[in-house]
Specification:
Number of strands: 2
Number of domains: 1
Structural class: mainly alpha
Strand content: under 5%
Helix content: 40-55%
Distance between the termini: 16 Å
Number of helices: 10
Radius of gyration: 19 Å
Strand order of the largest sheet: 1-2
Length: 230
């Protein structure tokens, strides 16, 4: 899934929490949006592994949300909103596509890393790939709901987020071709730092890293499982 629906979902989930601290409702909703964005800060550093914690974020949110409701301070409620947004993002990515450069081909079997169980969760592909039409539809649905509830500058944020989703959806399927033109022209030192999905052609094999090797050997998985797109 692309980033906009994650951000909008985090903000939407923060709305009920904001009723606990109505004087700081905008801060709480913004915190939820920030939480929805947070996991994707690992985009170029072990994407969907480094900052994606579907189990741990969810467990933390389970504690933080009722705590925020009881304590009722702006800080406690905003912190709960951040964790809730990060949790829904990490879990929702399981229902999207894999990490390959062209995820609509459905060649990858890794969606999100589950640190608790020490394994990758396979993509469910309810949303076929980031930037798919259904991804935009989800963004629009969340945006409309938020637009009705929020006001002021938050409405501008919602509108801008939906606009980003629309543009990304339009260009999504041409981006791999752009990447394949640009990457070969980059210095080797830069290319080596890019995620594997930008360095290995679709259908190619990505080397198993040292941190993945024990899990691969222990699980007896095929070479196909090594294509994590990082």
């Amino acid at each position: 899934m692309m980033l906009p629906p994650h951000a909008l979902a985090g903000a939407a989930l923060a709305v009920p929490l904001a009723t606990v601290a109505p004087e700081a409702a905008a801060i709480v909703v913004a915190a939820g949006l920030l939480g929805g964005v947070l996991p994707d800060m690992d985009l170029y550093v072990g994407h969907r592994r480094t900052l994606h914690f579907p189990v741990y974020y969810s467990a933390a949110a389970t504690v933080a949300v009722p705590t925020g409701l009881v304590v009722g301070t702006t800080a406690s409620v905003a912190f709960a909103a951040v964790l809730l947004g990060a949790a829904i993002h990490s879990v929702a990515d399981v229902f999207g596509g894999g990490l390959e450069l062209r995820p609509w081909r459905a060649t990858a079997d890794r969606a999100v890393y589950d640190h608790f169980n020490g394994r990758w969760i396979a993509p469910r592909r309810w949303v076929r790939y980031d930037g798919a039409p259904e991804d935009l539809l989800l963004s629009a649905t969340l945006a409309v709901g938020l637009w009705v509830i929020v006001d002021g500058q938050l409405r501008l944020v919602v509108a801008a987020t939906l606009a980003v989703a629309g543009v990304y959806t339009v260009v999504r399927r041409i981006l791999p071709g752009v990447v394949e033109v640009i990457v070969p022209a980059l210095p080797a030192s830069v290319v080596s730092s890019l995620p594997a999905r930008y360095r290995v052609p679709d259908g190619g094999r990505t080397a198993i890293t040292a941190e993945d090797a024990p899990a691969e050997r222990g699980g007896g998985r095929s070479a196909r499982a090594a294509r994590d797109g990082r």
